[in-house]
Amino acid sequence: MPVGTRSRARRTGARSARVSLAGLAALASVALTGVPSSAAQSDGTVRGHLTGTLADGATWIADVPDAWNGTLVVFSHGFGPLVASNAPSEGVRTALLARGYALAGSSYDPNGSMWALSSAARDQFATVDAVAAKIGKPSRTLAVGSSMGGLVNAQLARDGGGRIDGALGECGLVAGATDLDNYQLDAEYTIARLLLPGRDVKLVRFGTQAEAAATADLLTKAVTAAQANPQGRARIALAAAFLNLPAWAPGKARPAPTDWAGRQEQQYAWFAQGILSFVEGGRYAIEQAVGGNNSWNRGVDYARLLTDSAYEPQVRALYRAAGLDLGADLRTLTKGATITADPAAVRTAQRTSSAGQGLAVPLLDIHTTADNLVPVEQEARFAARVRASGDGALLRQAYVERQGHCAFTTAETVAALHALEHRVETGRWDDVATPAALQRAATALGLDGAAYVPYSPAPLTVGRDGSAR
To answer: pLDDT by residue (tens digit) across 80-127?
Structure first.
């Protein structure tokens, strides 16, 4: 991809990441507020910018172009402030409105945790109904979601038969809350145990956001200090392997596959940019939402866990170069693994914050190959679950060769939406969701470039079967 296109893509990713990092109940009743900046049509429907409030206090927004093409796109936003949004970026919003799409989205219930998975799908379905009451029944409704909203989106695709026609997920947290918290716990525990030996570091059951921030600060400082010597760098690489952290950081050339030192340096760059603050803040929000700790490491064999990681050769090479005994460190981790989950929290997370149990409508997921916050390996975990449900034919996944979370160009998103529309219209995927077809379609839009590539993600390194211990 040309240098200029890569630069624009990085800027797009930075904007998208700010809105990034979902259970289903009966649809809420709807209480509409005023409708500013709108105009009535001769049939009594309205166009323009619409707003409303749902029964649980969630707000929604919609934008409807005068030349509406009949398709409504409902957008599920990612982890962050509970503010209504109807597109993953301003560029995508502008491009879709110009092409005649109506856009809508809700804040989710604003009265609880930012991990608003207990209300998100319900509020999105209620938003579709509220908007349709104002603008008329859409000829087609498509769901789009990013990051945490990608998990919401997968739930809409699972449960939305008759209410939505297809779904497009971007950088989706589709492995669910418990897988997320478990592999993050492995990385946090490795840092605490090996880089802060003898320290009692609080890793779960945070009572306040301040407690989570304090842990993030402590762990980040430990990683920063450890980077100064070969032994510390080897142990950081071990933690990064358990975190499924990519070895390609923004603003850097991708290191060669066997450039072990260069790969570790780029993994460290993610730590230095504050990834642990996001991880611990997210853990606090999830614990608040599910009513306790939904992760555990008691019974985890860390030697076996490492063999599941695509980063095992790198870890072994760096340990050899540092003169460290990898087996001894792995035995230390296994022996000290005593953290247990709260069973009720695990059950709540499974009920509200999981996906992959099946699909009712076609779903196209796209993901960057070097996603620091929602590793691309989550797509492998999700696909295996969908195939096990018997709905694999409804799922397609495609990959963009780029660093960063949700770092998509406008062209990549619009092309993916058009591919989904083809599947909805024809009942067949044909070849529209292949890397070559998506790349051609995105480039032909003449917008801001594209980097779809053939890619198959490695398995997610998580080492649990879902049964809390």
So the answer is: 999 999 999 999 999 999 999 999 999 999 999 999 999 999 999 999
Asked if residue 19 has pLDDT above 50, the reply is no
Reported as half-sphere exposure (CB side, CA atoms, 13 A), residue 56 has a value of 24
Hey, what are 204's tokens?
Answer: 């779960």
Distance CA 394, CA 234 (A): 42
DSSP 251-269: TSPPPPTT-HHHHHHHHHH
Tell me the per-residue pLDDT of 156-186, one tens digit each, with 9 for 90 and over.
Answer: 999 999 999 999 999 999 999 999 999 999 9
User: Across-strand partners of 396?
Assistant: 364
C-alpha closest to that of 412 among 89, 154, 148, 166: 89
Tell me the average pLDDT across 235-257: 97
Element housing 315 (H / E): helix 312-322
Task: Return the axis-axis angle of helices 275-290 and 343-352, rounded to nearest 10°.
Answer: 100
User: Could you give the CA distance from residue 95 to residue 182 in angstroms, rounded to a whole number?
Assistant: 38
Nearest to 148 by CA among 164, 168, 172: 172
Determine the Cα–Cα distance for residues 418 and 308; give it in Å rounded to an integer.
36
Domains and CATH numbers, the chain: 3-175+354-453 (3.40.50.1820), 177-348 (no CATH)
For the chain, how far is it from start to end, CA to CA, in angstroms?
A: 47
Phi-psi region of 188 (alpha: psi -120 to 50; beta: other; left: phi over 0): alpha
Confidence of residue 24 (pLDDT cuts 50, 70, 90): very low
Q: Are 354 and 347 in contact (CB under 8 A)?
A: no
Q: Yes or no: say if 335 and 301 are a contact pair by the CB < 8 Å rule.
A: no
> Does the pLDDT at position 33 exceed 70?
no
Q: What one-character DSSP code corresponds to residue 161?
A: B
Binned at pLDDT 50, 70 and 90, residue 45 comes out as low
Minimal CA–CA distance to 259: which of 307, 306, 313, 323?
Answer: 313
Confidence of residue 465 (pLDDT cuts 50, 70, 90): confident
CA 119/CA 58 separation, integer angstroms:
9
pTM for the predicted model, two decimal places: 0.90
Residue carrying structure tokens 């358990």: 242
pLDDT band at 47 (very low <50, low <70, confident <90, very high): confident
Contacts of 143 (CB under 8 A, 6+ apart): 73, 74, 75, 76, 124, 153, 156, 157, 160, 164, 166, 167, 168
Helix (H) or strand (E) segment spanning residue 419: helix 410-426
Q: Are 146 and 20 in contact (CB under 8 A)?
A: yes
Q: Residue 432: helix, strand or coil by DSSP?
A: coil
